[in-house]
Amino acid sequence: MRNYLVILFFLSTTTFFAQEDLIRKWTKDLCAPEMHGRGYVYNGDNIAADYLVNEYIKLGLTPVPGQTNMRQPFEFPVNTFPGRMLLTLNGNQVKPGDGYIVSPASGSFEGKLSPYILNIENFASVQSPVTMKKEIEFNRFNSILVDKNGITGDSLKLMDEILMRWNQVLPIIEIYSKKFTWSVSISAREYPYVYLRDSLYTNQEMYLHIENVLEQRHTSNNVVAYIPAIKQTDETIYFTAHYDHLGRMGDETYFPGANDNASGTAMLLSLAKHFKAFPSKHNIVFVSFAGEEAGLTGSRYYTDHPLTKLSDIKFLVNLDIMGSGEEGITIVNATLFPKAFKKFKKINKKGKLLSNVKSRGPAANSDHYFFTEKGVPAVFIYTMGPNKHYHDIFDTYEELSFAEYDDLIQLLMQFVKKI
User: Fold this and answer.
1) Whether residue 143 is found in the same domain as residue 185
2) Rounded distance, CA 209 to CA 223, Å?
3) Which among 100, 119, 279, 290 could bridge 220 via Cys, Cβ 3.0 to 4.6 Å?
4) For residue 189, what are the domain limits?
5) Average pLDDT rounded to a whole number, residues 80-91
6) In angstroms, rounded to a whole number, what is the distance separating the alpha carbons of residues 258 and 350?
């Protein structure tokens, strides 16, 4: 008996490490340069979709009944930066993503900048576009360099509104002291808006070259995979996560999106591997969404064109930012679905899993949102920890700890059993 227990322990431990090795591999693969940040330049999102389809097939999953393909295509507009991304100060190149970022709605521009310097001392001048335009034309300015230091409250709001209007006429360079956080835009302005690290600018000569392409009809794919229940039933559990990220800002800089959300995408694959080996009393559908970074576009499309009946979804768990957990997890929609939240808390306490299971109210901050709007019970879970990289070039695979990976898997597996 003792020998049997030793062998059983060895096998379970080996299985755990093999599973952890897999989630690390999947996450690392999704962060690779060949994925181009899983965005909209060089077809990065669709390269990632093909990868996921192949991995689900390897795990033995199939399309949902009635479908012949795991891909669900949809279209949306998106502003992209596939070409040159260059900013120089006195002839020295500034590193994109580190020394500067561009607004995701930026347009194209090439040339030397001769900026009108705008700050708290002459803020009044920007409030009169006619007067300022004459001044710019007279002095042959071709851009605005803005320092918002000291401008607050309503004055700051007014300045931002006016600068957006001026951005249709001129490039704008903003001296920026905060953390760089990039995003995705489905529209484009006429000229670029650049955020330049404040520590780098000392009145140098500036040259800017940015190339944007507004794709009016970009095609992405949700990836939908399926595991049937042990016995035939209509009741279905959904696990979802977005696999897209921000892509490239120019041809040399990409955003790996390790924590957001290669980690959650890999967690779906890990759960798929488990439930394929140990099927549930429920059907289980795994949806990897595209277009989340472009305004939850993929999940909005899916809820409008569901591949299974939304009324058959017993519960949906959306996973985003799964790469840490040292400080526990937060469950969005916990206040909407208190019974489900209590189950998570009870499972966690009994298993002595995570240090904290925090409640949060409804929020339109990930792909659970449109399901909830359609009446589907759903929560969004994200991990908390010391890794604060978000929407920046430093959200890399190497920064992930996977500290609570095993506990998270156990929590989710037990929840499916209890729901």
Assistant:
1) yes
2) 36
3) 290
4) 85-210
5) 97
6) 31
Answer for the pair 195, 100: CB distance below 8 angstroms, yes or no.
Answer: yes
Task: Please tell me whether residues 205 and 221 are part of one structural domain.
Answer: no
- CA neighbor of 241 nearest in space, from 38, 33, 386: 38
Closest to 320 (Cα-Cα) out of 373, 284, 268? 268
Q: Among residues 210, 234, 258, which one ends one of the domains? A: 210
Answer positive or negative: Cα dihedral of 288, 289, 290, 294. Answer: negative
Distance (Å, whole) CA 98 – CA 91: 17
Least confident residue range of 122-126, 235-239, 389-393: 122-126
Side-chain-side CA neighbours of residue 251 (13 Å) = 8
Token couple for 345: 């808390």
Q: Give me the number of domains the chain comprises.
A: 2
Q: What local confidence, expressed as pLDDT, does residue 135 receive?
A: 62
The CATH number of whichever domain residue 60 belongs to comes to 3.40.630.10
Residue 128 has pLDDT above 90, yes or no: no
**204 plus 232 within the same structural domain:** no
Distances in whole angstroms, Cα of residue 230 to Cα of each of 239, 275, 324, 410: 18, 11, 33, 20
In the predicted structure, residue 140 carries a pLDDT above the cut 90? no
Kindly state the tokens that stand for 394. 């430093």
DSSP codes joined into one string, 42-81: TTHHHHHHHHHHHHHHHTT-BPPTT-S-SEEEEEEEEEEB
How large is the average pLDDT for residues 349-372? 97
Cβ proximity of 318 and 368 under 8 Å: yes
Q: How far is 247 from 184, CA to CA, in rounded Å?
A: 9
Q: What one-letter code names the amino acid at 175? A: I
Q: Any idea which residue has 């996977």 for tokens?
A: 402
Q: Which ranges of 31-173 would DSSP assign to H, the alpha helix?
A: 44-58, 123-126, 129-139, 153-166
**Biggest distance spanned by C-alpha atoms of the chain:** 93
